[in-house]
Amino acid sequence: MKKIQFGILIVFLVLTGCFKENTIKLNLFSNPEKIDTQQATDSASKLIVSHIFEGLTTEDSTGRIVPAVAESWSVNGNVWTFNLNKNAKWHNGKKVIAEDFIVAWERALNSKNNNKLAYMLYPIKGAREYNQGTIIDFKAVGVKALSESILQVELNTPNPYFESLVAHPMFYPINKAFYEEHKEKYGLNKKNILGNGAYYIAEWDTSKKIILKKSDKYVNEKKLNIKNIDLIINGDTVQLKKMYEE
């Protein structure tokens, strides 16, 4: 079950109220800059990304790595094989496929995008070389879609922690067709974002509020107790204190 990531919330947010009628109300100190899995650098954007997208694996409420888009995986030396949940969907109802991860990882490693966290993918065979330009063809990187629902990843060396690594937003998927259509504005407003996670952006009133709602396309939607996350954008700590006390 997808958790509400309270560890992140405590660090980045101030509770402004409550948990009422299956809704959590929270505060963001600033407007998100860009809600983009590979480009989000500010705390507000990262928080939202973590709730509207999901990777191959995720953490449960105890911090244990559990299946997410990948329902199972196996390891044979340096090679990891992820079997995707065939019911995993994007918020537009389209199926999440192995190619969606390949598109995202190529984008993360492409030097043209100046991704400061590209190094996180370096355990993958050829990833460093592609990012640094010594390999030009991404097909030389150790990532293959064996089918729509099977993703194979070859690493440089055995890495028992790779299942934890792919839970990071850098490894989240991108819907290729949607990204190509919205490329220049991708991640800048709710119309230009397509996630696959537990929540979607129902409302984004710049510098005022962002409303996240539970997605009925999410594979574990029935297990989610929290239906709405209301994020109020307010950097006035004095006003926030008053709101909390009320």
What does this protein look like?
With 246 residues, this protein is an alpha+beta fold. The chain is 22% helix and 25% strand. The chain has seven helices and eleven strands. A five-stranded mixed beta sheet has the order 1-2-11-10-9. It has a four-stranded antiparallel beta sheet with strand order 5-6-8-7, covered by helices on one side. The chain has a two-stranded antiparallel sheet with strand order 3-4. Strand 3 and strand 4 form a beta hairpin. It is globular, with a radius of gyration of 18 Å.
**Major sheet attributes:** 5 strands, mixed
Low-pLDDT sequence parts: 1-18
Order of helices and strands: HEEHEEEEHHEEHHEEEH
Overall pLDDT confidence: 87
Strand content: 15-25%
What percent of the residues sit in helical stretches (DSSP H or I)? 10-25%
Q: What is the C-alpha radius of gyration, as a whole number of Å?
A: 18 Å
**Span between termini:** 33 Å
Provide the spatial order of strands within the biggest beta sheet: 1-2-11-10-9
Provide the structure class. alpha+beta
Q: What is the count of β-strands? A: 11
Q: How would you describe the shape?
A: globular
Total helices: the number is 7
Topology:
Layout lengths: L5 H7 L1 E7 L2 E6 L14 H10 L4 E3 L5 E3 L2 E7 L2 E6 L13 H12 L17 H6 L10 E5 L2 E5 L7 H4 L10 H7 L16 E7 L3 E6 L13 E6 L3 H9 L1
Parallel strand pairs: 2-11
Antiparallel strand pairs: 1-2, 3-4, 5-6, 6-8, 7-8, 9-10, 10-11
